[in-house]
Amino acid sequence: MDHKVLFYEELEQKVRCKVCPHNCILEEGKFGLCRVRKVKSNVPIAINYGEVTSIGVDPIEKKPLYHFKPSKNILSLGSFGCNMTCSFCQNYEISQNKPKTQYISVEELINTIPTIENNAGVAFTYNEPFMWYEYIYEVAKKIKELNKDINVVIVTNGYINEEPLLKLLPFVDAMNIDLKGYTNRYYNKICGAKLEPVLETIRKSSKHCHVEITTLLVSDENDSVEEAREIAQFIASVDQNIPLHLSRYFPKYKMENHATEVEKIMSACKEAKKYLKYVYVGNVMGVDNNTYCSKCGNLLIRRDGYSVEIFMKENKCDKCGESIYIVL
Ligand code: SF4
């Protein structure tokens, strides 16, 4: 369904979209880079309002969020469109194409949330949620008007302008933000974007809500110990409590590099742990992804795949009293 774009600037015969740092110039009938925004009859519109390509119930650990409502489920949904063009995209069918959709109204979606067992709330994920901004903003705002205990989660590439981000953040409880690498070369070459706006989203969002970061380590591109160090140092400069998920890459879509060596992932993880309290590994079987107290080493959360056992009642260590960055 069409919906007027919320952030734009009128130019002569054209419109500048101001949702994300691409700031595309939109013309009648011509889409911006995300392929969801264009001008129609002189009005800038997004064509994916309420249009859902995927919906399901996931363990919240799958987002991944390890320090936010552990062991809960979360209603997860996405639309189509993305403002990045990552060569390794896991969801290119919906991010780079326009597949079949089903329309779900704001009310219908909100009414579904309480029908799900052990549910933490709703997560906008699968494609880039900020490309679905007009819809997620209305859903998130409405949810918080109705019931503040329903959590709103965003799983994002972090490529958004300041104004729309700040407008949405009061209604968001948790985000997992991709920090895809730590060089402009990587962002330009592999993702079709720039690094700095993502860093800015991380800085700003962490002041408003729970934040975790994911980096996909791609063989021969961003899997060096040096890059892991830079990523960890940047996150620590924001807050050393922010959990970092280092995930193993497998060939997908246009990227043909071999799967990242497990030893490289483990070296990156070891390096990142010098700067951050919580570093986890994704897409590798048999690694220890438990949460331990950073002060005394006490086991706080045991994870085996998506099976989770929690050994803490409040957000502090039962043994030494150290406060833990976690929302239970
Ligand atoms: S949201 Fe889409 S149209 Fe708008 S600036 Fe970003 S990529 Fe371009």
From TrEMBL:
Residue sites binding [4Fe-4S] cluster per the record: C82, C86, C89
Radical SAM core domain segment(s): 67-288
Keywords linked to the UniProt accession: 4Fe-4S, Iron, Iron-sulfur, Lyase, Metal-binding, Pyruvate, S-adenosyl-L-methionine
InterPro entries: Aldolase_TIM, AmmeMemoSam_rS, Organic_radical-activating, Pyrv-formate_lyase-activ_prd, rSAM, rSAM_sf
Transmembrane segments: none
Cofactor note: Binds 1 [4Fe-4S] cluster. The cluster is coordinated with 3 cysteines and an exchangeable S-adenosyl-L-methionine.
Essential cofactor(s): [4Fe-4S] cluster
GO-annotated molecular function: 4 iron, 4 sulfur cluster binding; lyase activity; metal ion binding
Pfam family, one: Radical_SAM
Keyword Kinase: no
Descriptive protein name: Pyruvate formate lyase activating enzyme
Organism expressing this protein natively: Clostridium uliginosum
